Amino acid sequence: MKPIPFHFPYLSGEEKKTIQKAIKHFGAGRKDSPYLARCEQWLQKFCQVERVLLTTSCTHALELAALLCNIGPGDEVILPSFTFVSTANAFALRGARLCFVDIDPHTMNIDPVRVEAAITPQTKAIVVVHYGGVSCNIAALRQLADRFNIFLIEDAAHCINAYCEEAHLGTFGHLGSFSFHKTKNINSREGGALVVNDPALMDRAAIIRDNGTNREAFFSGKVSHYEWVDIGSNYHMTELSAAFLWPQLKNAKEVTRKLLVHWNAYYEALLPLWEENKIELCAVPPYARHNAHLSFIKCRDLEERTALIAFLKDRGIDAFFHYIPLHNTPAGKRYGYFAGSDQHTTFESERLLRLPLYYELKKSQRKRVVKVLYEFYRPQR
Ligand SMILES: Cc1ncc(COP(=O)(O)O)c(C=O)c1O
User: Fold this and answer.
1) Does ligand 1 have an atom closer than 6 angstroms to the CB of 61?
2) For domain 252-377, which architecture applies?
3) 15-250 CATH
4) pTM for this entry
């Protein structure tokens, strides 16, 4: 039987055409970047926000966010330990001390009660992750940020077309970031975006993305020349990446629809195993409208997960775990500390296993994954 890969990047089939168009545009000597402009406008409308800046990656969007919030030595930044390194690096790079807090085991998202307990006079920002596009309790976190007058930054890397109630994730914090890495639902191979929700940060965000220059003001005729006005870097997405991204964005809803079919089918098929207490599944909170970015099960413990990965692999199925908690890593220990007790982060991450889920996954493949999971959990005697 043909192996079932863990992931396969989405392609709309239109990318070649749009890339060729972009190249023709350069060939005609044109200096503007129509695909970049189109993608940014599309995202602004789709997310109902005033300003979205496309960036080289979500990592760079987070770095831009750290610069915008003037994070520096002496500041503390609260974040989950169960996340990708970029969430932490962006702030460690600026010299901040990282304060890792525990998660809600049902969603793997940061726990607002633990966040509140971890706030100190040094806390400058809370950075949250909506794991798998499932909203964290963002309303409670926004209230906390407002009450303590600190920045709220959403690492919404997984969240294109994912919502809390009716509002798009990434639009609740002062700043939000998306990833268009090839592992995400919608991709430009590498790419990202920064959502700037705080009007006070909008002009400076464009300046920082543009090497600290006021080039955008120059191009829109607001100043006679552009010059170095602030610190910054080159965080721009290229026009070619935007040409790749454009047809994908236009298909975002269709991609989510198909992924949700797989996600829901996995969930329904595996529910009996949860009811028998053999596995656990994600308990999606009622306010979360997720985008089926990933599907996971929780095994009993690390030992069982290791055995299950090997069992699946033997039957041609790739399944992977996710995120070694950052506070347990050498850099995590150097740049941060865990506030309160690690009641859930290490244990839950050690038993989490992601199942194959992507646009090209076939119903027959999904059914095979489920069948093999049943063979593991209900072996024939
Ligand atoms: C939660 C989270 N944040 C940030 C990133 C980094 O995204 P990028 O690869 O676009 O830099 C990832 C990547 O997978 C991620 O999972």
Assistant:
1) no
2) Alpha-Beta Complex (3.90)
3) 3.40.640.10
4) 0.97
